[in-house]
Amino acid sequence: MALAPASIRGSFSVDRYPCASFSEARPSTARLSSSLFQGIRLVFAKETMNSRSFTRADLHSRLCARCAVLESVSPTSQGDMTLVNVDLGDRSYPIYIGSALLDTPELLQRHIKGKKVLVVTNTTVAPLYLDKVIEGIKGKGGGVIVESVILPDGEKYKDMATLMKIFDKAIETRMDRKCTFVALGGGVIGDMCGFAAASFLRGVNFIQIPTTVMAQVDSSVGGKTGVNHPLGKNLIGAFYQPQCVLVDTDTLNTLPDRELASGIAEIIKYGLIRDAPFFEWQEKNMEALLARDAGAFAYAIKRSCENKAEVVSLDELEGGVRATLNLGHTFGHAIETRLGYGEWLHGEAVAAGMAMAADMCVRMGWIDKSLQSRILSLLERAKLPTAPPRHLTTEMFRSTMSLDKKVADGKLKMILLKGSLGNCLFTSDFDPKALDATLAAFCDK
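That's the 3-dehydroquinate synthase, chloroplastic sequence above. Prediction below.
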């Protein structure tokens, strides 16, 4: 298995959010230099965005704080398990990554609060892992009571009606303010259980046990929770951080091929927006990922979580840099909404969305065609779509994109690639004619 080359890249720009890349093994001096560089860029980007002035002392204080955050998220390995920290001050939490972690119940037990636990899962995952998780929690002793609620499986059930089933179970079993909700499943379960935890009794403890690639590399990390609305995806939700994320890589052995490929779309995204060496590593190792090579996946999950943790530590509530994690999502969410939730998997829609974003960037001269070709090639090798269904019209895209969460003051903001591999922008300053041309190229009408 090839390793990511040791390099640190990135360019300074007041209106650009940090998209520098980091290697797996790097000396402390390199981390400090990169942290300082990232901190300077973030401070200026945030101050420009918020139109606030600051003194030299303010700048020094904020740079020190940002450097401390970036230094603290470096992963440390403990045997076969890797630990990545999401640094959010007193709400920081670990991401445990490794094989057979569900057979190491003490990891889960140390984060259980109170005497009552509600495990939220679905009809697909429950027969595979629910009993093991319940036994692991009960092994803590002390009379812990574990209840469970099994929801139907699929994106189409990520709605308010299904969410109420979690509240019904929590109320019926008399869960209290000290209880812990445990999400056992993919992104849908994680988002819904997290939103329920944020809302029940105005907030209870919450643990993520993601069982899909999509959830392990993206949705379980960072505290985004919520449900869909018929008019738009993830329009109802909250930011609510878990106590920990437990990633047992063995759960991928039971994942269908289509779900596996869907999750790889988010892995590809990290390379495109901020980690060029990781993208290059994927170009060399895509077949190993599709073959479920344990070493390849362990590295891909770890590197993805490092990228996500760094971004969330800098911008928890998506005021700027965190929005760059949504490359391809503006187009992708429109595809999901218009087709009907569940017709395409999230990663499939995001893959097509990234292809559309790349097309738009080429039309504006922001990236060259050689990079676009590499993007399309990697998506195709990952068995992912590179275009939406042709019957989706330009008007369908426009009306749905107008409801996107990133619309502000009537202006659509998009995440777009600009410059060399690993650089991106979150901006409303794009050529609308390029967007028109891209939609026309991918749609029948």
